[in-house]
Structure formats: C-alpha cells, structure tokens
Amino acid sequence: MIIPIRCFSCGKLIAHIYEPYLELIEKGESAKAAFKKLGIERFCCQRMIVSQVDLLDDLLKFSRLQ
Description:
- It is a single chain.
- The chain has helices at residues 18-26, 31-38, 43-50, 56-59.
- Helix 1 crosses helix 2.
- It has four helices and no strands.
- It is flat.
C-alpha cells in the first residue's frame, strides 16, 4: 500500500529510503549492501522496507463503490 513514514517498532524515519533502496536493488546490489549504503542498520527498519508491497497501482484499476 503506502510506504510507512516511520518504522512501527523503533520510530525511525524510513519513507525516504524506499526509492533509493529500489534503485540499488535494480542495479544488482544485494539487499545487505544496499541497507549498509543507505544507513539502515536495525532489523526492524529493514523488515519494514523489505516487506513493503506496492498495491496502489493494482487498486486504482477498480472503480469506486458509492
């Protein structure tokens, strides 16, 4: 859905990390190296970014119920 602004466990800001993380992954870098480069060390924050699923584009295909 929508990228969480903060980590649910520790409260660190993580929304600004998602786009650069995807770019690094597309370039072929490992997730561990990408997190190290972006400064995400806590497992809880890594979990928030890795488990993010973009469903917004899929939901926009359906019409609104009124």
